[in-house]
Amino acid sequence: MIAAVAVLLVLCTAAGIVFLVNRLKSPRYGSIPFSGPDHAGPAGTALQIVTWNIGYGSLGAGADFVADGGRSVRALGRRSITTAAGAIGETLERLDADLVLLQEMAAASFLTRGVDVKAGVLRALNGYSVTFWEDFSTRMLPPPFNLSNGMMTLARVAGLQCDVQPLPQEPGFRFGILRKNYGALVTRIPVEDGREWVLMNIHLSAFDDGGNVRSRQVSALLELAQAAYRSGAHVVVGGDWNMRLVDTAFPHGTEEKYLFWIHDFPHEIVPEGWTLGLDPSVPSVRTLHRPYEAGVNYVTVIDGFLVSPNVVVERVETIDLGFLHTDHHPVLASLRMNAAR
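The chain above was modelled as a monomer; its predicted structure follows.
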């Protein structure tokens, strides 16, 4: 009896420590390093950039998700997730962009059923330097209960510097213990003629009440972006805005109650001369209240780019993959600096 009480006391103490560590842990903002090849040459005045929320490799066409009104937390099995990670990497290799902005990247964790999605994606992308920032993770929880999700920027150009700038945060905790952190991965990229690109990788809030946190995040991003522009940089903000960037009318059969998270981008606060780069002809996201079926799930455009007045958007294309391996589609942009320095 005494031994059983002692074991219970130890377990309760350990659980309390884990709870406090995860409740009190702080995100890491500031400088983060790139790792990988150092033989790349300097960036030019034109860039190909792709952004893609990869849904931690676990939100392919067969998945639904409880936060979106579905039933599942882990809808897909290990084999599907492993296949998805490899297919995502192969797609990115084929797109052959200079820079890649990924959201919802994941190491082996509970949500990926132990599959190292990060390793699976990177297997096909040997020529890139990589930086990764955790925005949703656990501490002191062993597999299979651990989480390590975040944002990743990949580049095939030299001279990179990246720092994470904090954005307005959501109140409260998920599951009573975990907090999703929000920040912009700001990468500075020198150009051989002396100019500079500033590239911001973003993933904004999705389930904030009334879209209020998202609106404040956009305002904070505009302040960061304008400060970089005023310093002479050529600024690109890209990623998952979690806001409808353009009016869309793709056919669907989704009930209104599953569209609770949809809010429109506040075009009225964008400074004069700044341009949204997006592809209105192909949806970039689908709802997760049920597995994907074309014409049934609601689809719209929430992924794309915002560029400063000294950047020209030459082409933007959303790659239609039928949401086979993710709940988002990759968006590829061709950008160049204005001719005048």
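The chain has a mean pLDDT of 89.
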